[in-house]
Specification:
The chain has helices at about 5-15, 30-40, 60-65, 100-110, 130-150; strands at about 25, 50, 75, 90-95, 120-125. The chain is of the alpha/beta class. The protein is globular.
Length: about 160
């Protein structure tokens, strides 16, 4: 569980200590997406992409990220990138802020776990301690346990 600056530091660590990573950063808040994108530029990642609800040519943005020589980072709105997008060039998924429904986050994460993925995918969920985010994550855990207990699926 991290504070805001620690989140930025972790983003930096993920991007630069392990060169060659391809990262999808999901955030639900447009203003945070802007800050992340601006921070990336300040870190020297000039060609990072941004996919959000106002993106007109979604396919072109995704195609740029998916290409072998594409940029290492794409910042994605949780809603805009949660369905209908394949991001199998990513080997790292970073959820910058939690969403109320864990299934929405899982669906977004699945964009990197699609047919054609050949590498392991590491998933980070960044949570700030002693905030509403703590409560959201607790609800996620409760929801997952409740669903598993009431499921008719045998494991």
């Amino acid at each position: 569980k991290l504070g805001w600056w620690a989140r930025v530091s972790l983003l930096s660590l993920v991007l630069f200590l392990d060169s060659g990573r391809r990262v999808v950063v999901f955030s639900q808040f447009v203003e945070m997406q802007k800050l992340i994108h601006k921070t990336l530029e300040g870190m020297g990642v000039k060609d990072s992409l941004w996919l959000h609800g106002g993106t007109r040519k979604r396919g072109e943005v995704v195609e740029k990220f998916q290409s072998d020589d594409g940029p290492p980072v794409i910042v994605v709105s949780l809603k805009a990138g949660g369905t209908g997008v394949t991001l199998t060039r990513a080997d790292t998924v970073l959820h910058y802020d939690p969403w109320w429904n864990p299934a929405v986050e899982d669906q977004a994460t699945d964009r990197a776990h699609r047919m054609g993925q050949t590498r392991p995918v590491t998933i980070y969920r960044l949570i700030t301690q002693n905030t509403i985010e703590d409560k959201i994550v607790a609800l996620h855990q409760h929801s997952r346990i409740h669903c598993a207990m009431n499921s008719n699926i045998a494991f």
